[in-house]
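Support reply, case 0932

Customer input (verbatim):
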Amino acid sequence: ASYTDSSDDEVSPREKQQTNSKGSSNFCVKNIKQAEFGRREIEIAEQDMSALISLRKRAQGEKPLAGAKIVGCTHITAQTAVLMETLCALGAQCRWAACNIYSTQNEVAAALAEAGVAVFAWKGESEDDFWWCIDRCVSMDGWQPNMILDDGGDLTHWVYKKYPSVFKKIRGIVEESVTGVHRLYQLSKAGKLCVPAMNVNDSVTKQKFDNLYCCRESILDGLKRTTDVMFGGKQVVVCGYGEVGKGCCAALKALGAIVYVTEIDPICALQACMDGFRVVKLSEVIRQVDVVITCTGNKNVVTREHLDRMKNSCIVCNMGHSNTEIDVTSLRTPELTWERVRSQVDHVIWPDGKRVVLLAEGRLLNLSCSTVPTFVLSITATTQALALIELYNAPEGRYKQDVYLLPKKMDEYVASLHLPSFDAHLTELTDDQAKYLGLNKNGPFKPNYY
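Our regenerated output:
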């Protein structure tokens, strides 16, 4: 028994005829009347995204994205709206869909539609709606995208499969998730990537901030809002000790939880040990833990066998981008009863009365069930904007048909834009010191592989 969070009392947005105040109906959102409320949300987000605002001011004169037709597929929140409106201010035309069926803020989507961005998204889409929205962004008479901004790789995959002629004319792809980057490298390896792509996920300004610090704060937010759980003394297993896992573990440990880690990589496993966590196999602790959190980017990490062995009222959730980590499909069987107890909270009940608490049907917990800190998203969004500008304006031949990392100089520029928020003052190298280290005084200070 699956059901999404769209309220059953009204027709699907796809069936509605809506127009914004300028008479345009080039969008599909839950309710265009919520635009004013959404505009306030965007204005609040702007307060904490000063780097994007300063990028707007700095580049407004020269319009570095004039002529860019960007098709985007990201979470649609107040923070990503600030990014979209920045891209428009820099000269781009944008069409946008959501990369997650639960993470769209309906009022924000309405505000974007009112402002003239062609946005196709609402909270609680069905799987069919999800692909329909992506398709509507790509296929429009008289409009052909020349840039892709993706989070998770679904949009890239759709254009590659369904619109190969459009795909060949794309000037660049910017991808920000572990999953999406993995898919790009697969395409590249198979010799099928015919456009340059920028791997923003592995930029220092994404890995160290969005993946680590954002998850360190939002994991607790998502769990508290949905379950009111107390963490002190709880036994928690975190699957994966990459940047996301590190953030989750740090937050849980600080609140007094007993944290176990599962890991396939000996280096990450050793880091977990040095940080004071027990590294175990999931099967060793599954009977005793109170919470299971996945953040591996893999599939079938928590299997039906694990779910069968969990204790009563164990909470199960996912912090990875895709809903592949927990085998939710295996729970949709006649002998198990699903009970929706809150928005995004299901109790899955076994024949003997045991319940497992499943959050967001195994989808991304923080963006489905709570919000994420605006400031951290400012860092990622600025990195994405610069990657788009770089790829769009690159002279012929600078980027081949491959996956690239953002130049380190740009990473450092993004970081420097955010320092004024903390009234932080950088030390400058003397000529002598710079010569001693073999560096330019103005950077880059780290090699590209850092």
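We compared this against your earlier run and they match. Two observations from our side: Confidence is low (pLDDT under 50) at residues 1-8. The chain has two domains: 13-202+394-414, 212-369. Please reopen the case if you see a mismatch on your end.
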